[in-house]
Amino acid sequence: MNRPPFMSWLVYKEVRALFWPWAGFALVLAIAPAADETFLIGGSGLVFYVAAAVVLGGMSIGHEYAHGTLVTWLAQPAPRRRLVLTKLLVLAVMLLTLAALAFAVYSPYLHVPARDRPAFFLLPAACGVLIAPWMTLVGRSATAGAVFTTAIPVMLLIGVSVVRRLIGAGPSPLAWTVFVYSLTALCCVGAWQQWRLAQRLEGIERADGDLFVARRSGRGTARRRDLPALNWRPPVRLLITKELRLHSLAFALMLIYVVLVCADVLLWGKVLTPIISICFTGVTAIAVGACGIAEERRWGTVEWQLLLPLSIRAQQTVKVGVIVGLIGVMGIALPLTLSRLLGFGVSGSIVPAFALVVLAVAAVAFYASSACSGGMPAFVIALATATLGGLLPVSASTVSHQATELWREWFPRAVGVTPGGRWLVGEIVRIETPLLVSGLVVLATVLALRNHRYADLTRGRIVRQVGLLVFYVVVGVVTVGVTMSGVWLAGLLPTA
Question: pTM of the prediction?
Answer without folding.
Answer: 0.71
